[in-house]
Design goal:
Blueprint (H helix, E strand, L loop, with lengths): L28 E5 L9 H5 L4 E4 L2 E4 L3 E2 L3 H9 L5 E5 L5 E3 L3
Antiparallel strand pairs: 1-4, 1-5, 2-3, 5-6
Length: about 100
């Protein structure tokens, strides 16, 4: 995979919703959209509709916790306002935006 992340390690299909009880044992990402920064272009919705939806004047994540998936990262990288943050739920490491 492009970024060295393997959703197959989780034992679930990429993008599956996970429960909070499983966070400590599985590789899980948290997805946040900063409403104050989001300019509502919808590029992320078009790129990854299973992860993002329109919510008024901004975009919001479909699920807060997801299994790793490069489609999610690609959509986050495409955000012109850099309003999407993806981080590892266990370690807290920010995957997008890159530092």
């Amino acid at each position: 995979m492009a970024r060295g992340l393997d959703p197959a390690r989780t034992g679930r299909a990429a993008g599956d919703l996970v429960s909070a009880e499983r966070v400590a044992t599985d590789l899980t990402w948290r997805v946040d959209v900063d409403e104050a920064t989001c300019i509502g272009t919808g590029m992320c919705v078009g790129a990854a509709p299973r992860y993002f939806r329109r919510g008024g004047h901004h975009t919001e994540p479909v699920h807060d916790l997801v299994a790793p998936d490069d489609d999610l990262l690609d959509a986050a990288f495409a955000c012109p306002a850099e309003a999407i943050r993806v981080r590892d739920e266990v370690t807290g490491d920010v995957l997008v935006p890159e530092a």
